[in-house]
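To illustrate the input format used throughout this study, we show a single complete record. The first block contains the structure-token representation of the backbone; no residue identities are included at this stage. The design step must infer an amino acid for every position from geometry alone.
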């Protein structure tokens, strides 16, 4: 049986070294995220997941390595260049505009994608996340943590990105909120979105991602499809057990 053809690479990271001051955090990190793929970047707290995401988004410039997005090497480039090329980043701390309403937060972020895409609009956000529509007039700073997380993801989508980076979207949230975010991400996956998801919670990723990269102490230590990882108890115990 002929294996299915690989989709084109949406994001290619190679040989990424990142330092904070004199301390090296990432050591030669590399992986390929393909178009339409949801990939989980897994690892314990402090493994280097957030630094990898920040490096891709332009917030932690690497000392070495390449980050190819839209055919261009953006390693070390300012964050606005990655955004113009279709990258959207939802950081771990969400960073909503607290004094603006939910609807204001969405409208502030509205723009077409790099090729003029206009799939995500405020009405479509309301359709995908009816909870946010009910809160449309509330100041974002008065939302719960889970509501802010949903707003942060929705705000990123308003930029009609080609690639969505999510840093720890389930962290610290109630199970019912985690389930709602999981439903949203499954809908994005089924619609063909390209997503890189950094998580400690492997179980959250099992029903979402098709592939996984495990990072430990700043090194990529394992890559596999998600089903292989699900059944590989030795790898899970070594790198993901808390």
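Output of the design step:
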């Amino acid at each position: 049986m002929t294996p299915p053809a690989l989709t084109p690479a949406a994001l290619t990271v190679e040989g990424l070294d990142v330092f904070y001051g004199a301390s090296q955090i990432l050591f030669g990190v590399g992986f390929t995220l393909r178009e339409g793929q949801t990939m989980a970047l897994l690892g314990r707290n402090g493994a280097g997941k957030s630094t990898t995401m920040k490096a891709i988004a332009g917030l932690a410039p690497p000392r070495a390595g390449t980050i190819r997005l839209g055919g261009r090497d953006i390693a070390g480039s300012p964050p606005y260049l990655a955004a113009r090329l279709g990258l959207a980043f939802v950081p771990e701390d969400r960073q909503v505009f607290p004094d603006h309403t939910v609807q204001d937060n969405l409208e502030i972020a509205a723009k077409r994608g790099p090729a003029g895409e206009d799939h995500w609009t405020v009405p479509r956000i309301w359709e995908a996340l009816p909870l946010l529509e009910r809160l449309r007039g509330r100041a974002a700073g008065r939302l719960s943590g889970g509501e802010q997380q949903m707003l942060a993801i929705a705000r990123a989508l308003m930029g009609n990105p080609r690639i969505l980076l999510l840093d720890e979207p389930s962290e610290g949230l109630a199970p019912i909120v985690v389930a709602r975010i999981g439903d949203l991400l499954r809908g994005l996956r089924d619609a063909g979105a390209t997503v890189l998801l950094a998580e400690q919670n492997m179980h959250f990723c099992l029903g979402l991602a098709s592939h996984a990269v495990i990072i430990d102490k700043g090194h990529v230590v394992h890559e596999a499809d998600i089903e292989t990882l699900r059944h590989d108890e030795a790898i899970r115990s070594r790198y993901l057990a808390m």
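Structural context for interpreting the output: The chain has a mean pLDDT of 93. The beta strands are 9-20, 23-34, 38-42, 64-69, 72-73, 87-90, 163-167, 194-199, 211-216, 219-225.
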